[in-house]
Amino acid sequence: MLVFIHGAACTPAVFTHQLSAFPDAVAIALPGHGAPGGAEDIASFADAVESRIASEEWRDVILCGSSMGGAIALEIAIRGKLPLAGLVTIGSGAKLRVAPAIIEALRLGDAAVLATLADAMFAEPTEETRAAMFAQFESVSPAQRLADFRACDAFDVRERLAAIAVPALMLVGERDVMTPPDRSLFLADRIAGAHVEVLPRLGHLAMLEGPEATNLHLAGFVDSIGG
What we know:
Strand content: 5-15%
Largest sheet: 6 strands, parallel
Radius of gyration: 16 Å
Distance between the termini: 6 Å
Shape: globular
Number of strands: 6
Order of helices and strands: EHEHEHEHHHHEHEHH
Low-confidence stretches: none
Number of helices: 10
Mean pLDDT: 96
Structural class: alpha/beta
Strand order of the largest sheet: 2-1-3-4-5-6
Number of domains: 1
């Protein structure tokens, strides 16, 4: 089964189109993003996701994480505690450096940075997509938004990727300015048997901006591993 993990300052709503296309899939709300509590680093988020999967007794799990969610999925796959069936990242990477100006603006509570981030999520942002992202951002507390981006900035598993021993697919928008395609290519080069797909004309949240292309590749990957 597909288990989706959203990114920084987002909610499971980023996977609306995937939940419609894959009826048995689940999108997890991370702590501080619709679920109780909060977290300040990728390891803590990974703990929460592992606990949820274990408590629900989900089997044949294919983790699919977007951006920070991809980092969480990578951390879980590296640990190897759960018997995963597969791993998918969307617009993610082994290291997720965040521009210091973004972190500082979030620390200061500068609302303008949310507009910048909302537009950066898409190759061709519109008023509709901007409003949708604002709704998600505003559902997460300012403190948790800041913690999310600090967690991303501190994340670095470049030297640990060889530990991943499950089928893996890296999806990335061709026009992703948050985590450019080279980040996904790096992952695919260092995870045994991994495959990468660069999605034309799409940005960071490819699953929202181009659900048809994203879902096509997801379905092919699920079928390839018998999920």
